[in-house]
Amino acid sequence: MQSRRKFLKKSAIASLALAASPLDVLAKDLPENNSTVINRPIVLSTWNFGLKANEEAWTVLGKGGRALDAVEKGVRLVENDPNERSVGYGGRPDRDGRVTLDACIMDENYNIGSVACLEHIKNPISVARAIMEKTPHVMLVGDGALQFAVSQGFKKENILTPESESEWKEWLKDSKYQPIVNIENHDTIGMIALDANGNLSGACTTSGMAFKMHGRVGDSPIIGAGLFVDNEVGAATATGHGEEVIRTVGTHLVVELMRQGRSPQQACKEAVERIVQITKRRNKNLKDIQVGFIALNKKGEYGSFCIQDGFNFAVYDQKGNRLEKPDFALK
Ligand code: SD4
Asked: Could you read off the pLDDT tens digit of each residue along the chain, which spans 331 residues?
């Protein structure tokens, strides 16, 4: 039986010959069918802190480890850092001065775990993973999530740092909820990875929009909004205004566009354009909104697109670890 590649080459020769006969085309002159070009392992994550998170994830991926372990380990580094004021320990509180965390995780087998509005625990991503692996459910919120975390041995502690507390006290003077694009919004670390065995996984974790209403949940813990992985197609994660990502089920849209044949880049662009159209239809001001997507497919090709300038992401593959800036819609 002839291989699919030989078949594709033969049909390409046949169609070229038909289109521009006589034409002497040799099989060796045709471009390789790029489905054979696989770039793995590879890991992508949002914003500047993605660089150090990628380094951490690479300690797993570089040794042939599982993408799921890599993404959990990578984002935990950022959750544990009190100087990162938008994720985990040290995250900015809600308007009542309470730090409430959102996170989710998804593996190569459609296993999912998610936690929302979780207080007093530094590593919501690991609570999400425990929900995925140890309960019959996929999502726990608030007190129930905290009870579960404590039952699993997670330490209950104060995660409001003096810096975040004094910022909140300053904010109370005006008490205006006005997220500033690309400033207060450097919130979420979303990470997606393809491991050496060809499996995809993703993780997403945040303290959400600073000074949000108590109980507000964004896109980051919602599978299909802040994160989606289909091991036959690709993975995507989002950052920015969660309300807009939920409205469009953003990362599910990105993955479904890849399933239809779009490159990761084109899929992110079309999903952002959808948000742009919907925002216009709703007569809302696009200038006040930022959403950025990053996406990765099974071949290790990646892409990104956002609404406005200012978003960046980190990518680590055989070429090393680097920051990249995506193209954007509002010019
Ligand atoms: C949220 N998507 O809670 C998060 C925030 C974020 O960049 O990613 N901001 O809506």
From this structure: 344 444 344 433 333 333 333 333 333 333 344 455 789 999 999 999 999 999 999 999 999 999 999 999 999 999 999 999 899 999 999 999 999 999 999 999 999 999 999 999 999 999 999 999 999 999 999 999 999 999 999 999 999 999 999 999 999 998 888 777 766 545 799 999 999 999 999 999 999 999 999 999 999 999 999 999 999 999 999 999 999 999 999 999 999 999 999 999 999 999 999 999 999 999 999 998 999 999 999 999 999 999 999 999 999 999 999 999 999 999 9
The phi and psi torsions of 81 (rounded to 5 degrees) equal -90, 110
209 in contact with ligand 1, CB cutoff 6 A: yes
Task: Find out whether the beta carbon of 187 lies less than 6 Å from any atom of ligand 1.
Answer: yes
Which mutation among 177, 186, 187, 216 tests ligand 1's pocket best, with the greatest number of atoms within 8 A of CB? 187
Residue 44 bridge partners (DSSP): 192, 315
Buried-state track 144-154, b at ≥16 Cβ within 10 A, e below 16: ebbebbeeeeb
> Is the CB of residue 254 less than 8 Å from the CB of residue 248?
no
Calpha distance 44→65 (Å, rounded): 16
**Is 189:87 a contact under the CB 8 Å cutoff?**
yes
Active site residue 251: no
Residue among 74, 125, 111, 61 nearest 300 (CA)? 61
Atom of ligand 1 nearest to the CA of 208: 3
Q: Is the CB of 91 under 6 A from ligand 1?
A: no
Nearest to 274 by CA among 307, 296, 304: 307
Percent helix, strand, coil in the chain, to 5, is: 35, 20, 45
In angstroms, what CA-CA distances link 327 with 132, 209, 216, 305? Answer: 35, 24, 30, 5
